[in-house]
Amino acid sequence: MFTADAPLREATRTAHLTPAHEETVKATLPVVGAHIGEIAHTFYKGMFSAHPELLRDTFNRGNQRSGEQQKALAASVATFATMLVTPDGPDPVAMLSRIAHKHVSLGIAPEQYEIVHHHLFAAIAEVLGDAVTPEVAEAWDEVYQLMADVLITAERDLYATAGVEPGDVFVDAVLAARRDLTDVVTEFTFEVSDAPGAFAATKPGQYTSLGVRMVDGARQLRQYSLVNWDDRGFTVAVQRDGEVSSVLLDATAVGDRVDATLPAGDLVLADDDTTPVVLVSSGIGSTPMTGMLAALVTGAGARDVTVIHADVSAESYAQRAVTGGLCEALVSQGSTVRRHSSWTGAGERVTLVDLEIPAGAHWYLCGGNGFLQDIRDQLAAAPDLAPVEVHYEMFSPNDWLLGE
């Protein structure tokens, strides 16, 4: 599932509050912003109390326990509201695109926005008390409805690209093979014989959500970047981190089935066969880069490609061998390829100014939040690199990037 961001950008550009509501939101944004974390916590608590099936079968419990999901919601609402009332406010298009892709990868449907609306405004009233006058509630209701309308439209467009109804994204995936890549990363190959061709339209860099049954009966979902795919199925790499990964590693054998969603994600290799490409990853973030490199190998013409990766050690770099093979294939086709590796276990760090990197490239980043923030900061301090665009995917809900 994938669409260009032009319709989303236009929908966001034309989203406007009524003048009276704009003034109310502008006046109350500081107090709402100051309490948005508490509001988000109260919201999720109330929603999951009324709809336990959402926490059991849709939302990732690990992100709830860590507070990451609450921070992501808080940042997204605050960012969208700021955009509506501030002429030079943050551009929310990248944020909304990532949210829309995450939602379709979980099978979120339009009617669930009404559930969110009810419990979000109950939380606002509970946290802010008498400060929530009818005028304030009405103004912030419009903020939510505008944001929901933009997202519902974007998600409907994404579902349409796969020819499915909203929410109808799950297929049966049967484990066909598994092999250890490192001590902590295992490669899983699934077949989707009941839905042939379901992954054929995957774009390099996208992910699937895998759903497994826990001991308590809950179905928990987690996104995994796609390494390979064809008409028969797909391959992902799993690193032990959280409930879903543990079940896949410890309790899933060849022949077992899991739920899988159609491919989604906006960290996608641009349709451009001339602009240099810079792939930057840390740890298991190397998996979407592998898919992009494979696509570059099968693409037309020579390319300028730079691969930058940070890991604990060479032995822990799960995609090291396959990345090397793909880079060699690119070189044999006449591409210019540079590889830079940094081993954090030896105290090394990716330092962009020390590397040979072409200016005017498409940059693709995937890794932990701290690593990506460091790369973003370095790019901001290196104007000579002048990226055409910076695309990124994170391991957890995207809270720190939402204000940009």
Automatic annotation (TrEMBL):
InterPro entries: FAD-bd_FR_type (IPR017927), FNR_nucleotide-bd (IPR039261), Globin (IPR000971), Globin-like_sf (IPR009050), Globin/Proto (IPR012292), Riboflavin_synthase-like_b-brl (IPR017938). It catalyses: 2 nitric oxide + NADH + 2 O2 = 2 nitrate + NAD(+) + H(+); 2 nitric oxide + NADPH + 2 O2 = 2 nitrate + NADP(+) + H(+). One of its GO terms (molecular function) is oxygen binding. PANTHER family: FLAVOHEMOPROTEIN (PTHR43396). Residues 16-156 form the Globin domain. In the C-terminal section; belongs to the flavoprotein pyridine nucleotide cytochrome reductase family. Belongs to the globin family. GO terms for biological process: cellular response to nitrosative stress; nitric oxide catabolic process. Its EC number is 1.14.12.17. It is an enzyme of class 1 (oxidoreductase). It comes from the Bacteria. This is nitric oxide dioxygenase. Residues 168-270 form the FAD-binding FR-type domain. Keywords: Dioxygenase, Heme, Iron, Metal-binding, NAD, Oxidoreductase, Oxygen transport, Transport. Pfam families: Globin.
